[in-house]
Amino acid sequence: MANVVVVGAQWGDEGKGKVVDIYTEHADDIVRYQGGNNAGHTLVVGNEKVVLHLIPSGILHEGKRCIIGNGVVLDPEVFIREITKLKESGRIKDDSCLLLSESLHIIMPYHKRIDIAREAKSGDKKIGTTGRGIGPCYEDKIGRRGIRLMDLLNEEVFVRKVKEFLVEKNFLLENLLGEAPCNLEEIVAEYRGYAQILRTYVADTSLILEKDLKAGKSLLFEGAQGTLLDVDHGTYPYVTSSSTCAGGASTGSGVSPRQINEVIGISKAYVTRVGSGPFPTELLEETGEKLRQVGGEFGATTGRPRRCGWFDTMVIRYAVRINGLTGIALTKLDVLSDFDTIKVCTGYTYQGKALESLPAALEIFENCQPVYEELPGWKTDITAAKTFEDLPENAKKYVQRLEELAGCQIVMVSVGPRRDQTIVLRNPF
C-alpha cells in the first residue's frame, strides 16, 4: 500500500474529483489539504452528478474517512450546506467519517465582502477570483490575524478576535472600498449557530493521520486548483492564494513529506483556464468554442465559461518538475474525438528564441509564442473503450506522444465522465 498525492497539473479543473473518487477504493483516509469552496469537483456516479466544493470526493464511498486539513480555509455556511445535502441523499450515514482540523482558518463575512469589492474596483486588472473570500482569508492567516476553527468553538475568544479585527476591516470597507461596515453582533449570532454544528467534526487531524499511518493505513491527498495557480509557482499574480502543488500536501495536513510515495498529476488531453492570466495555447475562435461546448467547460463553482486551448507540454513538464510527478492521469480524451487534426504545443519562443522552461516574468509569459506539432485525429467514439488496446490507433499514438513529451508515465486515461469510463494503466497504490 502507498500514500498518494493527487494534484492538478495545469490551471485547475482537470478532473481531480473523478480520479480521487476512483483511487479512494484503495485508500483508508482521503485528505483535502488546501483551498476553499472556490474549488468544484464534479463526479458522475451512475447517472447521478455530484458536485463537491469542500468535502473530499472520497465521501461517496462508505467506510472511508474524509479529512479537511489545516491548509484549507472553510466557509462554515458552505460546509454545512454541503453535508446537509449529502445526508439528505444518504451519502453521509456516520458523522465520524468526516473530520475537520481544529487549526484550519475560517472565512468570515468581511473576507467575502472585501474580495468582491476589490474585484469590482480592479477594472481590467481583475485577477478573476470567485468572490468567495478565499484570498482575504489566506491574507489574514499569513498576517497572523486569522480566526481558526478552535477560536470559533470558544465564544469568548471568537468575540474578542472579531471585535479587534473589525476595526481594521470596517475601516477598509468604508474608507477604501466604499462599502457598508460589518456588524459585530450579527456576525457573532450567525457564527454561534455554525459553531454548534461544526463542533461534531473537529479533531487534531494531524495526530489522527499519524496514528493511521502507524497502523498501516493508506492516505490519499486531494488538492484543489492546479500547479499553475500555486501562489509560489504559478502565473503570479493570476494565481490562487495557497500551495496547490504536492508540497502543500504536507504543510496542509501535518503529514511528513517522507510519508508520501506517489504524486499523480491530473491533466486534460487539452488545456483550460478560468480567470485572467497568460495562456499561450488559448484558442479564441471556433475551435476553442467547440472544445468548450463538447467538453462542458463551464465552472462547477461559478458557471463561468473556461478558456480552452491545445495541450501544452511546456506546462506539463513544469508540473512534472515542480511536483515530482510519478504518473499522469489524462482526462477528457473523448472530447477530442471529433477533430480531424489535433495540435500539441511542444515549446515556446520569445522574441525569436526558444525557451527552456516556463518564464517566471508575467510580461514574457504573456507574449510567448507556442510551437506546435500536429497529429491526426481518430474521428471515432471512444467512450466504450475498456482497455488501452480498445482505443483507435491515432488515439493511442496521441497518448503515447504526450507521454514522450511530458517525460512522465501516463497511468490513467479517462474516456468519459463516469467512473467506469476509465482505463487504468498503473495503480499507484
TrEMBL record:
Alphabetical UniProt keywords: Cytoplasm, GTP-binding, Ligase, Magnesium, Metal-binding, Nucleotide-binding, Purine biosynthesis
Residue positions binding substrate: A300, T301, T302, G303, R304, P305, R306
Record: residues binding GTP: 12-18, 40-42, 306, 332-334, 414-416
Cofactor: Mg(2+)
Pathway note: Purine metabolism; AMP biosynthesis via de novo pathway; AMP from IMP: step 1/2
Residues the record marks as active site: D13, H41, K141
Chief location: cytoplasm
Function: Plays an important role in the de novo pathway of purine nucleotide biosynthesis. Catalyzes the first committed step in the biosynthesis of AMP from IMP.
Name the UniProt record assigns to this protein: Adenylosuccinate synthetase
The EC number(s) this enzyme carries: 6.3.4.4
Compartments (UniProt record): Cytoplasm
Organism: Pelotalea chapellei
InterPro entries hit by this protein: Adenylosuccin_syn_GTP-bd (IPR018220), Adenylosuccin_syn_Lys_AS (IPR033128), Adenylosuccinate_synth_dom1 (IPR042109), Adenylosuccinate_synth_dom2 (IPR042110), Adenylosuccinate_synth_dom3 (IPR042111), Adenylosuccinate_synthetase (IPR001114), P-loop_NTPase (IPR027417)
Pfam family of the protein (one): Adenylsucc_synt
Sections of the chain in a coiled coil: none
Cofactor remark from the record: Binds 1 Mg(2+) ion per subunit.
